[in-house]
Amino acid sequence: MDLRHCVIPAAGLGTRFLPASKAVPKELLPVLDRPVIQWAVEEAVSAGATDVVLVLAEGKESVAHHLLPDPALERRLEERGKQRELEAVRTAGHLADISIVIQAEPRGLGDAVLQAADVVGDRPFLCILPDDLSVTDPPVLAQLWQGYERHGSPILALARMPRSEISRYGAVAVAETRGRDHRVTDAVEKPRADDAPSDLAVMGRYVLTPGIFDALRQTAPGALGEIQLTDAIAMLARSGPVWGVEYEGTLLDVGTPAGWLATNIRLARDDPTLRTVVRSALAAASA
Ligand code: G1P
Predict the structure, then answer these.
(1) What's the CATH number where 80 sits?
(2) Ligand 1 atom closest to Cα of 132?
(3) How far is the CA of 205 from the centre of ligand 1 (A)?
(4) Which pLDDT score, from 0 to 100, does residue 1 have?
């Protein structure tokens, strides 16, 4: 079945970024020249999604505004002959068809994804947590969709983590390995290091099938008192196939202030127009 939707949960309070995220949602913080949300949508589009479903909290509608056309701004830029800026604004406003659903209460990632059920309907869909950027070719979501084409089941992005870090993630138990693909038999959200079923962590990118919505409706609050997507995926894994793909390349953290800063520096260092700025700023700082 053809791919259409990508669900992007962006309803969180952004506590880790306060005070920067007091009035500006963390998804609108810039990484180089564009906000985090645009990187996520561009990755979804490059994997084949045409429609994006943003799950927002009340008051975070500005995240959607970045992705909608702004004819008045486009007209003003056109009148002033600002061609480069016009192109950038047009690109951001026409990446995908955007729908918004509101998560009324902060009841967890699983509950956020469930809010998208009516828009997504009866098709497999992508889901991306915009806390990491993929700068790999093909991007991680595209690698997952290739996994879906191999297996026809839900697909999780997996990466190996040191035991000391696994309790920050969802971790999976696997039964069968084919190259970089692992068949997932169980998943545990935020396990204690000693209880983690393996060192394979779920990395915030998924292909999900419509069955996830029923599983979410049956999922009770779990880790942190929240309805966890990982628990609903574990339920699916008990009744049918679920696969994980150990993706190629790395994801860059933009979900913590330190990660966001490091990612900006790293990408700026690799950008031909910003490379010299980074070098001279670092040289001046160490002089
Ligand atoms: C979420 C998921 C978790 C996943 C993590 C990293 O947790 O619940 O399973 O491992 O993202 O992508 P959060 O970082 O929101 O606590």
Answers:
(1) 3.90.550.10
(2) 12
(3) 9
(4) 65
